[in-house]
Amino acid sequence: MCSSAVCNLQGLMMLCAVDVYGRVFSLSADRGRWTRASDLLLELKRVSGSQHCCWGVGCDNQLYLNVYPSDVPIRHLEETYENQACSKYVKIYCKRWNPVEGYTDTLLPTDRWQWTDESGLNQQPLHSFVLPSPNWEWEGDWYVDDESCGRESTETGGWQYAVDFPAIFTKEKKWNSCVRRRRWLRYRRYKATGSWAKKVRFLVQVPLDRGRPPPEPFIDISCGGWDMSDSPEKHIYLWAVSQQGKVWFCTGIRHQNPEGSGWESVQVPREVAQVSAGPKDLLWVVLWDGQLLVRTGVSKDCPKGSSWELIESPNQKGVVHVAVGVGVVWAVTKDNKVWFRRGVNSYNPTGSGWISIGGEMVMLSVGSNDQVWGVGSDDRTVYFRHGVTATEVTGRSWVTVCAQLDCGGITSQSSACTLNDASEVTAPSQGSVLDTDVRKPRVPKITSDSFISALVSDRSDSTVPEGNQVTSQGPDSSIMTPTLPCSQADGAGTPWSNVDLEEMKGSGTAQSSLATYPFELEQKTVEQEDVPPWAWVTGGGCDIDSSSPISWLNTSDAGPISPSITPALSVTHTPTEKTPHDRDSSRDTVLFNTSNAFTTLQYVHVIRGCMCWWRDWSPHQWEDVSLMLEQVRGAGDQTEHILYFYYTRNHQKKYVHTLIKEVTALVPVFRDFLYTMAVYTAERTRQRRPILLATHSQQDFNTWLSLLHETCGESRGLGHHLSKQALWAVTSKGDIMVHEPSPSLEASAQYLPCEQMFWRQVPGHLLCVESNSLGVVWGIGHDHTAWVYTGGFRGDSPQGNENIEQTITDDRGVYVYENQRWNPMTGYTDKGLPTDRYMWSDASGVIECTKENTNPPSPQWIWVSDWAVDYGVPGGSDKEGWQYAADFHMTFHGYKTMKDFVRRRRWVRKCQVALTGPWQNVPPIPLSDITILPCLTQCSVEQVPLWAISEKGDVLCRLGVTADNPAVRIELAYSGNSWLHVGTDQPCKSISIGGGHQVWAIARDGAIFYRGSVSANNPAGECWYHIASPPRQTLKQVCVGRTSVYAVDENSNLWYRQGLTPSYPQGSAWELISSNVCKVSVGPLDQVWIIADKMAGFPSESPGTVCHRLGVKPMHPKGLSWDFGIGGGWEHLSVRGNSTEAQRVLPRSPLPCRTKSQVNGNAVSR
Predict the structure, then answer these.
(1) What is the pLDDT of residue 467?
(2) Annotated region Disordered: where (predicted)?
(3) What is the mean pLDDT of residues 396-423?
(4) How far apart are CA 298 and CA 283, in angstroms?
(5) Which of 910, 911, 916, 909 minimizes the C-alpha distance to 765?
(6) pLDDT by residue (tens digit) across 519-577?
(7) What average pLDDT does the segment 476-481 reach?
(8) Which of 296, 516, 656, 814 lies 20 to 30 A from 410 at CA?
């Protein structure tokens, strides 16, 4: 309502509360004691505070305003313009002429009035200005606005001249200046600061002569919206609820006009019981049936909003109170349970769901920084929510506000005293309960139908007991129970409040008898030591948090916690492992005694950040978005973590949210020179368009990627150690992905769709990974280095393994092709035909790749060499590295012939990546392919056979590999090292071992071989058997399962070997299964998975899609169809560790044969 330069800091640390007797108290951070308002006859029911003022609803249903004192007075400038015209000007147009007369206030009928506003459209004579309320006073009389500044007018008299009124006015008088005007000013000052003043309901904006009904008596009020705009002058928007359940909106509240300009009615679909407005654009209301409404479309340009949206109650009891902050919403149901609304902010004012927070309250209040205050349901003590920060929006516990009463100077006044100097004289209501000399030795217990319950049910008519007091008989004394009868204000009754004062115990306590409180008491000082039971509290003007050094938040000497708080919150807090975000958001809790601060069952942890989001609809472009990861932690039922994306489109706030449990993969990619991750869900996998999020720095990218991986694993209940049955995959970027299989993955009846498989990343960078069900996992890097998995996950190593985390380095080459075409004039040149490929391209020629614009595979890679000609290109090359062919789509060779019209050469540049992960290097032989014996889960194998192919094409067999020591070296008497060389006639490129120690290998020329006599006692076998390849096909990869053999050829065809039997393991023939296959993996249960090249219908997707063969059974080993899963750059897959069989459902016993004799006769056979 005022700028920071003029606001007083008193309101920034002010907590206001109302007790059950209607008395108003304030608590400041510096004093540390409850101070009662100076207007002792003031009785309020509810208050709503901001940082600069506080509003209240009295027991007479009238509005009261308390503006906090400020060093700068509140002054409002009133102005009006005096208009005159030249006499000659008037008479010319009236066909009369008198050059003697000058300017006069006699104007033409078409002119403006003599006294108007600046535009001249509204008449404003001096006598029409009146004070808007008795809370204002004039500062002097009217004066002319000129250089005299209120003193005696100068020669100009403040006049401005123009040709006509619509023209531009100047100070200089010219020969054609036919009209003139001057500005009159007068200031009025708000004089009711620092005290409660009654607000006039019928203001200028709602005149009675327009046929619009005036506001009814109010039962609730809430102010907010002061942070909605970034302008220096803050506006406060006041919302109120009438006894008829209507919503009213007050406009024009600012520093120069704290009372506002007028009321406007806001249409609501149902009757409203309570309203709450946040410091920004959040507005929630509670309906009488316990449901809630959210106001949408609220903005600085439209502070009233546009529509309502219905929100269900968190339980069947219904909501009785709601409290709104900047980005939080809290609610209290009729059973006094506290609830928190998830995902609420300006982009999503309705939120996404409720979670239960421990404690029982009757009402809550949220401060300007989302700190939460409340009033306990049983003890009526004011509580503060400890631990509320920007990351933990729900806090961790409730602590009591242990401030005492400030008894100095509190005196009772007669009923005839005024509220303040500027307000009208107000008589006390009939229900006034004034201070007495009866001391209360303890906090009274408030019954369930107490004052706060009565406030919520203002509309209902309460039964008025006869008399002004009720006697409660005890065994030794009679205790007076005062009642507050309703005051008849505007014909509407206020309900009664039943205050049950328990029997006062203790020796020497004065007993009270029946008494009647008079309305005029003698002036006497009242000693009051005990804190009264509270009915309402507002923290809108209290800008403190848990770390603020506030003395009255120290609970070390506080009294006992309310029983309604203790059972729900007295849970032993067990320390949990802190993430880096938890450590960043840790708070100093020295001021809080944990003996009286109880931990909740659930709490919300929020992490915010900014990223770039790829909008996958027109126009396709990167958008800056705000991210919010909302994590629900603590005891109780598992609640979904949610990831929100907030963005603005066409000046409208939009958001997209994703349940973390629905995320199936987080895959690092590289796009547009940004650190990008692809977020997959089942639906996004079907649509083949993941959510793309990117950052500009690698540190932010790694932080978010690690955080989201951890949150996804937590939401699915996955630990830090991988299952031995896991499926392993590698992307084209070298990222290692793992899937934890379930028994339903290979179920024949109800299988798990591939699109629902959850993949998580393991640190490292490899080219391929192979595993088996005993936990033996090996991998090969791009530089052909062998690595063995040590069993850790994301930095965690198994017990007993020290220094397992190693730096993983990987080298690879990035290739570009230089293409040229021959012509008879110049020979070979880079001037090709219009239909030719780019002269600098990739291997396919489709993508243009020059040495200047070619980058490493991802930002993690760095260049370690310059560009150089690659002479080791497949097919050979001449001494300059050129390869020749008749055309670009033909096969290239390393020599030139008469028919070769095109040539190309390959350029290579080395790059390197260095990461840290749970992998151990296995020197010294570089490998190109590897395979491990697939085993069933229940089998016991002392040593796991492992076969490999070296970079040179040699076949190797590694002995002594076990699950406990997967990289063990056993020194053999005949070899002297860990690798056993198996002789071959020619170098190989692919090898696989399957059930029964079947070993198959493919030579570099495409020939396929079977190794005979391989067993546990003879791990190297005896000889190779040549197997005929498919007709006119060259095989490139083979994979052997338990009883089946599959192979992939150079044309991406998948082949199945028929006729495999124990007596004839070589099989009889090849059968084509499918095309469009890059790689195949056959598991220990003969399950078949592949990496498909492309998925039909999505040509723009990058090659590499995970697919599962459905319908594979012992009697149908070839399966029936393919199930497509995640894709877009997946290069390798291994399912050879998944030996988890689906649960077999035993068939029911056959029904007994029924005889042909039936109830309705015999069956007739035909």
Answers:
(1) 38
(2) 459-481, 567-586, 1144-1166
(3) 60
(4) 8
(5) 916
(6) 333 444 445 558 899 999 999 888 887 777 777 876 444 444 554 554 333 333 333 33
(7) 39
(8) 516
Alpha-carbon dihedral 66, 69, 73, 75, rounded to 10 degrees: -10
Q: Helix or strand or coil: residue 907?
A: strand
The two tokens of residue 108 are 């033409």
Selection from 470, 467, 492, 494 nearest residue 480 by Cα: 470
Q: Give the distance from CA 96 to its chain's centroid.
A: 78
Burial, 714: exposed, middle or buried (Cβ in 10 Å; 0-12, 13-18, 19+)?
middle
- List beta partners, residue 1124: 1107
Predicted local confidence at residue 440, as pLDDT: 39
* pLDDT greater than 60 at residue 838: yes
Assess whether pLDDT exceeds 70 at residue 940: yes
Nearest to residue 253, comparing CAs of 230, 233, 283?
A: 233
Least confident stretch, 322-331, 444-453, 989-998: 444-453
Contact between 215 and 108 under an 8 Å Cβ cutoff? The reply is no
All residues at 6 or more sequence positions from 1020 whose CB lies less than 8 Å from its CB, including other chains = 957, 980, 982, 1014
Query: Within 13 A of 948's CA, how many CA atoms are on the CB side?
Result: 27
One fold for both 1-73+193-566 and 601-715? no
Residues 23-75 pLDDT 10s: 999 998 777 889 998 888 889 999 998 888 899 999 988 899 999 888 888 99
Distance CA 353, CA 659 (A): 12
In the CATH scheme, what architecture does the domain 601-715 have? Roll (2.30)
- Digit-coded pLDDT (tens) for 108-120: 777 888 899 988 8
Nearest to 216 by CA among 494, 486, 491: 491
Residue 507 CA, distance from chain mean position = 58
- Phi then psi for residue 424, to 5 deg, are -80, 160
- pLDDT, tens digit, for every residue of 848-887? 999 999 988 888 889 999 999 999 998 899 999 999 999 9
Q: Model confidence at 412, in pLDDT bands (50, 70, 90)?
A: very low
Could you say which of 2.130.10.10, 2.60.40.1080, 3.40.50.10490, 3.30.420.150 is the CATH number of the domain covering 922-1134? 2.130.10.10
User: Which segments of 672-758 are extended strands (E)?
Assistant: 674-681, 691-695, 727-731, 736-739
Region of 29 please: left (phi>0), alpha (psi -120 to 50) or beta.
Answer: alpha
Query: With contact defined as beta carbons under 8 Å apart, do 563 and 378 qualify?
Result: yes
As given in the structure block, the two tokens for residue 54 are: 């506080």
Q: Give, in order, the Cα–Cα distances in Å from 797 to each of 729, 790, 858, 920.
A: 21, 7, 27, 12
What residue ranges do the domains of the chain occupy?
1-73+193-566, 75-190, 601-715, 818-855+867-913, 922-1134
83: alpha, beta or left? (left if phi > 0; alpha if psi -120 to 50): beta
Q: How many CB atoms lie within 10 A of CB 830?
A: 11
Tokens standing for 397?
């516990």
Contacts of 554 (CB under 8 A, 6+ apart): 402, 591, 592, 593
Secondary structure, 3-state, 25-85: EEEECCCCEEEECCCCCCCEEEEEECCCEEEEEECCCCEEEEECCCCCCCEEEEEEEEEEE
Q: What is the CA 323 to chain-centroid distance, rounded? A: 20
CATH class of 1-73+193-566: mainly beta
The residue count for the chain: 1166
Q: Rounded to an integer, what distance in angstroms lies between the CA atom of residue 397 and that of residue 359?
A: 9
